[in-house]
Design brief:
Blueprint lengths: L2 E3 L7 E7 L2 H13 L5 E9 L4 E11 L3 H11 L6 H9 L13 H12 L2 H29 L7 H6 L14 H21 L2 H23 L7 H17 L9 H15 L9 H22 L2
Antiparallel strand pairs: 1-2, 2-4, 3-4
C-alpha cells in the first residue's frame, strides 16, 4: 500500500495523507467523521516519471485545526486498516466502501491483513473448521460427524474414554451459511482478543465456552448438534463487556451489532427462523463470555 503524508493546506482543509487505494482512503475518512473530525477524499493524479503515465491518487483532507489528532489516528489506522472499529465506522456512515476495479493489489492487501489481524490460535481453529466442513461436503460427512458429535450419554467413563467429544461438536458445521457466519466472527473477534490480550486468554475462553455451551445444548436437545456458535457468542459477550469494564484494552463492539446479535438469540428462542438453532448453546456461550470478561477485568485492575 503506497502512502504519502501531505503537508500543504487547501482553503479550510489540509491534505493529510495520499493513498493509491480509494477504498482505504474512504475507510479512514469515514472513521474520522465518526470521531468528530470533518474529512473528505478527493481524487488527484500523479505522474510516474519512469513511464510518464498518470496514476490515480486519493487524498484525505481534514480541517487544519484537527490535523495533529488526525495524523495520530492515521498512524494507528495504517497498522490495522481492517480492524473492526473502522468497518463499524463505515456502517455507521451508511456507506459501502467502494473498490477500484483497477486495484490489482487488493487481493494481496486482503491476504496480508487477513493474516495480520489474527494470531496462530485464531487461524488454526479457523482452518480446522473449514477442513472439517469441506471434507464433510466431499462425502465424509457421516463418519466425521460420528467422530465429533457429543456423547450419547454423558458420564465420567464416557469422558475418560473419549475426552475430545466434550469440545469436538463446536468444529462441525452443517451448512455454508453456518460455517461462514461462525468462522468470520471467530476470525474477527478471536483475532482481536488474541492480538490485544493473549493467546492464553483466547484458548481459555474457547475451552470454557465450548464445554459449557456443548453440555447445556446436550441436556436440552441431545447429541445431534454442532457449530462454533456458542463460542462465537462467548467472544461477543467477552468483547462487549470488556469494552465497558476495561476500555483501555481496546476491545469493543458497537451497540447496533450487539443489539443485532442479541435479537438473533431472541428470534431463535421464538422459533421464527427457517433453520434449527442451537439456542441454548448461544445463550450459555454469551453468558460464559460475559462472566469471563468480569473475571479478567478484576485481573486487569489488580
Amino acid at each position: 500500500m503506497a502512502i504519502k503524508m501531505i503537508k500543504q493546506t487547501h482553503e479550510h482543509l489540509s491534505p493529510l495523507v495520499e493513498l493509491e487505494q480509494k477504498n482505504i482512503a474512504q475507510l479512514f475518512a469515514n472513521y474520522l467523521v465518526t470521531i468528530g473530525i470533518d474529512a473528505q477524499v478527493v481524487n488527484g493524479n500523479k505522474k510516474d516519471l519512469a513511464d510518464e503515465q498518470s496514476k490515480s491518487a486519493y487524498i484525505v483532507l481534514c480541517p487544519h485545526s484537527d490535523l495533529s489528532q488526525a495524523k495520530k489516528e492515521f498512524e494507528l489506522f495504517i497498522k490495522q486498516p481492517y480492524n473492526s472499529k473502522y468497518q463499524q465506522a463505515a456502517w455507521q456512515q451508511g456507506e459501502t466502501v467502494s473498490v477500484d476495479s483497477n486495484d490489482l493489489t487488493l487481493l494481496t492487501t486482503f491476504k496480508k491483513n487477513f493474516f495480520a489481524h489474527a494470531g496462530v490460535v485464531t487461524l488454526t481453529i479457523f482452518a480446522f473448521c473449514w477442513v472439517v466442513f469441506l471434507a464433510s461436503n466431499l462425502g465424509w460427512g457421516r463418519p466425521i460427524f460420528q467422530q465429533l458429535h457429543f456423547y450419547n450419554q454423558l458420564s465420567v467413563d464416557a469422558f475418560i474414554n473419549e475426552p475430545w467429544r466434550i469440545l469436538a461438536p463446536a468444529f462441525f458445521h452443517f451448512s455454508w451459511l453456518h460455517i461462514v457466519f461462525n468462522s468470520m466472527w471467530w476470525w474477527q473477534l478471536g483475532g482481536e482478543i488474541e492480538k490485544k490480550l493473549s493467546k492464553g486468554t483466547l484458548i481459555n475462553l474457547l475451552l470454557l465456552s465450548a464445554i459449557i455451551s456443548n453440555v447445556g445444548q446436550f441436556l436440552v436437545s441431545g447429541a445431534n448438534f454442532g457449530g462454533l456458535s456458542g463460542v462465537v457468542y462467548a467472544l461477543v459477550g467477552f468483547v462487549w463487556w470488556t469494552g465497558y469494564l476495561a476500555p483501555e484494552k481496546g476491545l469493543s463492539l458497537s451497540k447496533p451489532i450487539v443489539i443485532f446479535l442479541l435479537f438473533w438469540i431472541v428470534l431463535g428462542f421464538a422459533d421464527l427462523l427457517p433453520v434449527n438453532m442451537a439456542n441454548t448453546a448461544h445463550l450459555l456461550g454469551l453468558i460464559s463470555g460475559c462472566f469471563f470478561a468480569v473475571l479478567k477485568a478484576k485481573v486487569f485492575h489488580h
